[in-house]
Amino acid sequence: MSGDPYEEELVYLTLDDALEIYAAIFSLSVERAADHLRSREALEGALGRPASYAHYQQADLALQAAVLAHGIAETQPFVDGNKRSALIAMLTFLELNAHELSATDAELAAWIIGFSSGTTPEQLADQLQPRIEPMP
Length: 136
Fold this sequence. Notes:
By secondary structure, the protein is mainly alpha-helical. It has eight helices and two strands; from the N terminus they run ααααααβααβ. The protein has a two-stranded antiparallel ribbon with strand order 1-2. Helix 4 (40-57) packs antiparallel against helix 5. It is globular, with a radius of gyration of 14 Å.
């Protein structure tokens, strides 16, 4: 045990959660969302990254949220909407863990699009850290 308070207390997104997010974005059923999955393995890998980072790198909440978003945005597990899915998954992960992100829609979009130009999860985490707040 690393002693990291996030390692055992956080709630992590599941494959079903990710499919529900995708379904909500595109107004589809979860079954239809699964039909839009290009690589189940890529999605499962992306969903597993936050817990892995928590365990092996003692990642804080910001870095765990960033690696989740990066994993989905960069592995492109869906046929369309990967960056949108990455953003909503990141926000959902924070919300499930009683935190919210104080940012404008333009900032959120720029952060996710930044992955395409080489932004690393660590760089995104540095931007997220001061903007993550416990939910009231």
